[in-house]
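The data are quoted verbatim here:
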Amino acid sequence: PLIDSHFTSAIIPAIGEKMMDVIHGPIRTWIHRTLESITDERQLQRVILRLTQASVPSYAQIRHGPIEYGKDVVVLMNIEGNNVLCMYQVKCGDITVANWRVIRGELEEMFLVPLSSLQIDSIPDTREGILVANGHANTYVEPVMQGWFEEQRLALGREFRFMHLDRLVEWIVRDRLVNELKEALRELGIEV
């Protein structure tokens, strides 16, 4: 009797919808769906930059361009007293045998051409190459990639990681970067 009937009829559908959301639980796949929908590498690079900036690095910059030397995004972080230079090569979609042949050369350039010391205050203790894709490696290229990563580690002491879509999402959730992701997507005009 205290609430007008027009008001109650207006809010009942909203309350019912919210209750159904609570009963069904949160939609957890939105991060996967949103990230894999990105087809512009520049947008995905911006997302990676924003996510890495959340850890307050000593240096973080997109370096993509005609003379990038395999480094789309570069981040220098202090991890447990070690200066770690993370060099990201960012790709949209799945990794196939055909595009792996190009990517492999870009990854090699990461270590062949050192980063200028102009913007970095300290010498990296460790350098790590990270191939990030908002897809996966298909089954035909998996053994080739795995063999190449192992060869680079054993023969040249180069550390590489492959961060496919699921590892990318795992990183976002584990390090509580969901808000940073939402803000980066909003910056780019990508709807969640």
